[in-house]
Amino acid sequence: MKTLNLNKLTILLGLFLVSAFFTTGANAGCVVNAAGAIITDYTDASGDNGENFPVTDTVADEDFAAGAQKDGCNVTPAEYKLVFYKYGICKADPSLGDLTSCAYLFEDAAGIEHDIELGVTESLPIPEFAIEPGIYPYSYVLLSNKLGMKWSGTMSESTTGNTAGGTAGDGTSCWTSGRGPTSTALNSDGDVVTTVHGAAIADDLITLQCAGTMGTPVFNYEVLSRFSEGYCEAALAATGDKQTFELEGTGQGAGIPTVSLLTTADVFATTCQTAAKIAWTTALTTSLTITEDSTYEMLMLATDSNTLLFNNGDNNDLYKLESGAPRIMLKVTD
Question: Which residues contact 29 (CB under 8 A, 6 or more apart)?
Answer without folding.
Answer: 56, 73, 74, 75, 304
